[in-house]
Amino acid sequence: MEIKVAKSAGFCFGVKKAVECVYEQIDENEKSGEKKQIYTYGPIIHNENVVNDLAGKGVKVINSEEELKEIISGIVIIRSHGVSKHIYDIIESNKLKLVDATCPFVKKIHKIVYEKSQEGMQIVIIGNDKHPEVEGIKGWSVTAPVVIEDEQEAEMFCTEKSKEICIVSQTTFNYNKFNKLVEIISKKGYNSSIVNTICNATSVRQVEAKEIAKEADAMIVVGGSNSSNTQKLFEICKKECNNTYYIQNAEDLHDVEFDDDWYVGITAGASTPNNIIEEVRTNVRIKHGKL
Ligand code: F3S
Fold first, then answer.
1. CB 3 within 8 A of CB 26
2. Ligand 1, residues 103, 173, 175: which to mutate, most atoms within 8 A of Cβ?
3. Which positions are catalytic?
4. Three-state SS for 165?
5. What percent of the chain lies above the pLDDT cut of 90?
6. DSSP assignment of 7-37
7. Which of 44, 108, 112, 171 for mutating ligand 1's site (highest number of atoms within 8 Å of CB)?
8. DSSP 8-state code for residue 281
9. 200, 220, 206: which is closest to 264 by C-alpha?
10. Mean pLDDT to the nearest integer, 72-100
């Protein structure tokens, strides 16, 4: 049996960096002997195993701005999604130690939005208004930003004709949809500067999964049951390989049978840690006496 694990399976670069950052802080904190309380502003990642592991090591999650305002000592880690400027201000005024794990690609958007809005431009964010990343991006605009998620909102968008607009995107937004919405806004004749800030980590993961699934006799997709990007990966793989399994961890492989001469592909959603992917690989091998 041949087993192929997708190179892009699991954490993207930004999330990997943020998770590692928390573990580094735990280590440093222990070594320094200071034993400061470590907090993450929001769960560092949407993965229960990781969040529980961190909780077991004493890391607490701050769930709201109000909670943050009450904290007057400790270390606050900002996750890869990033936050509004005023969250940094609260951390500073409460004299907390800041550890910024904002993904550099998100940081770049904050910088564009801050600078362009200071020049007086109207900021338009293509994305989901409720997503924490978009919340954070909005908070870097010194003028009132507008968030557009669908064609109807794009059609309805209007601002003063004299205003220049700057369009950016949520990093995980669909590229074709972004182009479509930009096209609708562009027809309105505003003087606009368009910056495509979509990160390609998601599409790279999907393209690789599709390529592997095309060749595979069985394809395993690992991820949380309510993870939308894992669901999407599963759909892509299932189209190419009928024997596609959606599992949360190695135990779910219990009843799955593989033939000895099969080529088995493995990929995983964006919030699946490497150790779970490795366990799945090992489990497939054990089932076939390859260990
Ligand atoms: Fe991940 Fe950063 Fe892209 S968090 S999805 S690498 S923007």
1. no
2. 103
3. 133
4. strand
5. 83
6. TT-S--HHHHHHHHHHHHHHHHHHHHS--PP
7. 171
8. H
9. 220
10. 97
Ligand 1 lining (C-beta closer than 6 Å): 12-15, 80, 103, 105-106, 171-172, 199, 201
- Which numbered atom of ligand 1 lies nearest the CA of 171? 7
pLDDT at residue 258, as a whole number: 87
Beta strands in 226-286, from DSSP E residues, in sequence order: 244-247, 263-268
Helix (H, G, I), strand (E, B) or coil at 80: coil
165 Cβ contact partners less than 8 Å away, ≥ 6 residues apart? 121, 122, 123, 124, 159, 185, 190, 191, 192, 193
Q: Whose CA is nearest to atom 3 of ligand 1?
A: 199
In ligand 1, the atom with minimum distance to the C-alpha of 80 is 4
13 CA from centroid of ligand 1 (Å): 6
Q: Classify each residue of 57-90 as buried b or exposed e, where b means 16 or more C-beta atoms within 10 Å of its C-beta.
A: eebeebeeeeebeebeeebbbbbbbbbbeebbeb
Whole-prediction pTM value?
0.86
Tell me, in angstroms, the distance from the centre of ligand 1 to residue 235's CA: 22
Q: Do residues 185 and 148 lie in contact, with contact meaning Cβ atoms separated by under 8 Å?
A: yes
Write down how long the chain is.
Answer: 291
Q: For residues 110 and 259, give the distance between their C-alpha atoms in angstroms, rounded to a whole number.
A: 50
Tell me, what's the pLDDT at 291? Answer: 46
pLDDT at 106 over 80: yes
Ligand 1 atom closest to residue 15's alpha carbon, by position in its atom list: 4
Q: How many whole angstroms separate alpha carbon 281 and alpha carbon 3?
A: 8
User: Residue ranges of the alpha helices (H) in 216-270?
Assistant: 228-240
| Average pLDDT score over residue span 56-73 | 97
Q: What is the DSSP letter of 288?
A: T
Element (H, E) at 274: helix 274-287
For residue 67, what is the DSSP state?
Answer: H
